[in-house]
Specification:
There is one protein chain. This protein is α/β, with parallel strands linked by helices and 325 residues long. The protein has one domain: 3-Layer(aba) Sandwich (Rossmann fold). The chain is built from 11 helices and 12 strands. Helix 5 crosses helix 7. The model has no long low-confidence stretch (mean pLDDT 90). Bound molecules: iron/sulfur cluster.
C-alpha cells in the first residue's frame, strides 16, 4: 500500500490587476499556476528526491502535502485517506505522522525556546505522554540527532552554529516518530563543510526509523546521494520521474538533460557537452498552452505549442512528459 498518493494536485494563486493593469489589460486576475496537475505516489520507507529550479513549485507542493495550504484542486491521500476529508482527530494524527524539516534553521526555531523545549513541544501538544515520558523521549531524540543532551538541552538558538540548529530542527521533526518527513532544502542555508554530516544524519535516521521522506533540493548531486527515486519539476509540473540512478545516467527529458549536464564534475580535464537549453526560466503566470518547457527547448516541435505532453511511462518505472517519447 502506498503511504502517499498525490493525484492531479493544483495550487493556483490569483493576482488582482493593479489600477494601471485594469486600464490597459482589463479586470481579470492573472493566475500563478505554482503547481498544476502533479500526480505521484510513494511507498513506505522510500526517499523520493524532488528537484527543479527556484520557483518551480517544489515547496508549494510540500506545503499542500503537509496540509499547511489548501490546494486549489486534486487530491492527496495518506494511507488511502483523502486528507481534505479527514476529521479533527484524523488531522491531529496526520500532523504528528507527517513532519517538516525546514530550510532555514535560523528562522524556523523559536528564539525564546531552549533546545529541550523546542524538541519537547510537539510531544506536549500532540501526545498524552506524562512529564517523565516527555523528558526521556526529548533527550533521547536530541542524542539521536547527534547532540549531547546534557551539553545542549538548555541552549538557545543564538548559542549554536547553523549545523547544530539544523540538528535541533531534525530532532523536533522526528521526536514524534513520523511516517513521512518532508525535508525542504535542509542543507541550503548551511556551510558546505557541514552539509555531508547533516545529509548522513537524515539518511541514517530514515533507515533506523523507517520513515518515508520527500527530499527537496535543486542540487542533483545531493539527491543522487540520498534518494531512491527522483522527480524533476518545471513550472508546476513533473517533467520526469524514475529511479534516481537511471534518471541521472540516462535523462530523457530535455530539461532533465540540461539540469544534469550542469552538475559540476571534479575533473578539470573532463570536457562536458554544452547543456542543450536556451533562455531564462519562464514565469508560472498564465502559462501558454502546450509544453511548459517550449520556450527553452531546442528540440521544440509543432505539437509542443498547443498540446501539453502527459507524464507517461516510457520504460518500467521511468516516466517522462515530452512529445519526443
Ligand atoms: Fe521540448 Fe516539445 Fe519535449 Fe517540451 S514536449 S520538452 S518542447 S520536445
Amino acid at each position: 500500500m502506498a503511504i502517499l498518493e498525490v493525484s492531479d494536485l493544483k495550487q493556483y494563486f490569483y493576482l488582482q490587476p493593479t489600477f494601471l493593469g485594469k486600464l490597459v489589460g482589463g479586470k481579470k486576475p492573472r493566475i500563478i499556476k505554482a503547481v498544476d496537475g502533479m500526480s505521484f505516489s510513494m511507498e513506505p520507507g522510500e526517499i523520493l528526491g524532488l528537484a527543479g529550479e527556484s520557483g518551480c513549485g517544489k515547496s508549494t507542493c510540500c506545503l499542500a502535502i503537509a496540509k499547511l495550504r489548501e490546494p486549489t484542486g486534486g487530491a492527496i491521500r495518506y494511507k488511502e485517506r483523502n486528507i481534505a476529508e479527514m476529521s479533527k482527530e484524523e488531522i491531529r494524527n496526520y500532523r504528528s505522522e507527517v513532519q517538516l524539516i525546514f530550510q532555514d534553521p535560523y528562522e524556523s526555531l523559536n528564539p525564546r525556546y531552549t533546545v529541550f523545549d523546542t524538541v519537547a513541544e510537539p510531544l506536549r501538544a500532540l501526545t498524552d505522554k506524562n512529564k517523565t515520558e516527555v523528558r526521556d523521549r526529548a533527550l533521547e531524540t536530541i542524542a539521536m540527532a547527534g547532540l549531547q543532551p546534557e551539553e545542549y538541552k538548555n541552549r538557545y538558538p543564538h548559542q549554536m552554529s547553523g549545523g547544530e540548529r539544523q540538528r535541533v530542527g531534525i530532532a523536533q521533526a522526528l521526536v514524534l516518530e513520523p511516517n513521512l518527513v518532508i525535508a525542504d532544502e535542509p542543507l541550503s542555508m548551511l556551510d558546505v563543510s557541514i552539509r555531508a554530516g547533516i545529509l548522513d544524519l537524515i539518511r541514517d535516521l530514515s533507515e533506523r526509523m523507517n520513515f518515508s521522506c520527500i527530499y527537496v533540493s535543486h542540487d542533483l548531486s545531493i539527491l543522487s546521494n540520498i534518494s531512491e527515486r527522483l522527480m524533476i519539476m518545471y513550472l508546476g509540473r513533473i517533467m520526469e520521474l524514475g529511479v534516481t540512478k537511471e534518471v541521472i545516467s540516462e535523462p530523457l527529458h530535455p530539461y532533465a538533460q540540461a539540469l544534469i549536464a550542469a552538475v559540476p564534475i571534479p575533473d578539470p580535464a573532463y570536457q562536458r557537452p554544452i547543456p542543450k537549453i536556451k533562455g531564462e526560466v519562464a514565469q508560472p503566470i498564465d502559462p501558454p498552452p502546450g509544453c511548459r518547457f517550449q520556450t527553452r527547448c531546442l528540440q521544440v516541435m509543432e505539437i509542443c505549442h498547443d498540446t501539453e505532453p502527459p507524464l507517461k511511462e516510457v520504460k518500467p518505472g521511468h516516466a517522462v512528459a515530452c512529445h519526443l517519447y
